[in-house]
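Design job #97: recover the sequence.
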């Protein structure tokens, strides 16, 4: 009788080694360990409104409660018909071409729909053009669906806006789609219409699908104007993502949607593929879908938060003022979304590593941030914070950040002085 084979750890998919998601990664795990030891942390790594005292609007809560007795069965794989009708009508008011319930897909948050749509699109080795910095789920979902992310730069010197010429230069015979995030996470950039029109023209010339994440579409500051992509795209295939998580502060409800626009002769097969994949996961969370009509047709509850005196606006103001006062920080003012993406500059930036700094800041100052390199950029002198805390909390946060950066600058200056003495 042969000896049994020795036990081995279960092997995991090799491509997981290429995936980064530091927003909830190793630093977040260390934060939980510190909290278990009794340390108090200010955690700014996740744009999660409910963790900062925000609630979903009452009219959305009532919409779910009033229909809870109807939520037990599965629904259609694309979502509740009434909810899809409400979404289609909302996009029709925005002049999205051919907006109809049949073109709407409801998912367990935008995250699921990004994964599902890339699975419907990509064959092994296909490429997706993704902004750098990106929201890292886009890179991860491309990789895990056997594709290859190809990055185009959104340079801080250009207000974190992309260069259409560079986007077109990155296209190869394997390119299938161009991803846009507008308003942008992590930078807060809001894309002007002229820029969007140039990118649409590129997609049309190269027969590419436009995939646009517009989850922050109504979170705007200082008169910034949001331009939806689908009306500009017209007959060019475009998949627009949005949901309840951010504008409506209902992250935990996991309700997202995607609207497919463009010439049906061009998008019909892709529509069928998404429908099939949606059917394989049966359906999205049903209770949350009953809030969709109330969300897209109900009162505006976000604008007051984003204008002077509003909570998000005042926290953003606190970040802008703190960065302006600091000799160690520069900031491209976020025009939209829920984040700021400051750069470390000057003496503090010498030999600076964003991950090590985030770890040090958490351990010495009790603040958890997300390193900028987590967003797939080639530089390591940025970090992201969410704008969700109260303004006074954010002022305290940046006092701690500045204190830590002053220590870095002091150490860097000592090294320079030592090298000068050695050279003399």
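Job complete. Output follows.
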């Amino acid at each position: 009788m042969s000896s049994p084979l020795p036990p081995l750890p279960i092997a995991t998919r090799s491509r997981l080694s290429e995936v980064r998601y530091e927003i909830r990664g190793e630093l977040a795990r260390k934060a939980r360990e510190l909290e278990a030891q009794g340390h108090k942390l200010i955690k700014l790594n996740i744009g999660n409104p409910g963790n900062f005292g925000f609630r979903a609007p009452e009219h959305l809560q009532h919409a779910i409660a009033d229909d809870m007795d109807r939520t037990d069965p599965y629904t259609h794989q694309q979502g509740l018909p009434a909810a899809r009708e409400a979404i289609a009508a909302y996009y029709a008011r925005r002049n999205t071409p051919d907006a109809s319930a049949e073109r709407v897909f409801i998912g367990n948050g935008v995250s699921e729909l990004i994964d599902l749509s890339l699975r419907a699109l990509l064959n092994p080795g296909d490429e997706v053009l993704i902004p750098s910095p990106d929201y890292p789920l886009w890179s991860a979902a491309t990789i895990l669906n056997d594709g290859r992310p190809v990055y185009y730069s959104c340079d801080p010197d250009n207000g974190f806006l992309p260069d259409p010429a560079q986007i077109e230069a990155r296209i190869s015979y394997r390119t299938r789609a161009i991803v846009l995030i507008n308003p942008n996470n992590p930078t807060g950039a809001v894309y002007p219409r002229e820029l969007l029109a140039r990118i649409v023209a590129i997609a049309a010339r190269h027969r590419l699908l436009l995939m646009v994440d517009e989850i922050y579409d109504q979170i705007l500051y200082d008169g910034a104007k949001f331009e939806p992509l689908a009306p500009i795209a017209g007959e060019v295939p475009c998949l627009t993502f949005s949901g309840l998580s951010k504008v409506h502060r209902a992250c935990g409800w996991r309700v997202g949607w995607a609207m497919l626009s463009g010439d049906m002769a061009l998008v019909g097969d892709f529509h069928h593929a998404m429908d099939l994949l949606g059917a394989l996961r049966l359906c999205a969370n049903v209770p949350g879908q009953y809030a969709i009509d109330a969300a897209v047709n109900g009162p505006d509850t976000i604008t007051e938060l984003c204008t002077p005196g509003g909570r998000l606006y005042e926290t953003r103001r606190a970040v802008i003022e703190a960065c302006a006062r600091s000799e160690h920080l520069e900031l491209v003012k976020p025009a939209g979304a829920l984040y700021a993406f400051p750069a470390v500059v000057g003496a503090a930036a010498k030999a600076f590593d964003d991950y090590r700094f985030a770890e040090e800041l958490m351990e010495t100052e009790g603040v958890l941030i997300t390193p900028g390199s987590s967003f797939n950029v080639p530089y390591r002198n940025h970090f992201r914070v969410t704008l969700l805390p109260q303004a006074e909390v954010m002022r305290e946060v940046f006092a701690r950040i500045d204190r830590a950066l002053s220590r870095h600058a002091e150490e860097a200056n000592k090294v320079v002085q030592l090298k000068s003495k050695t050279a003399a």
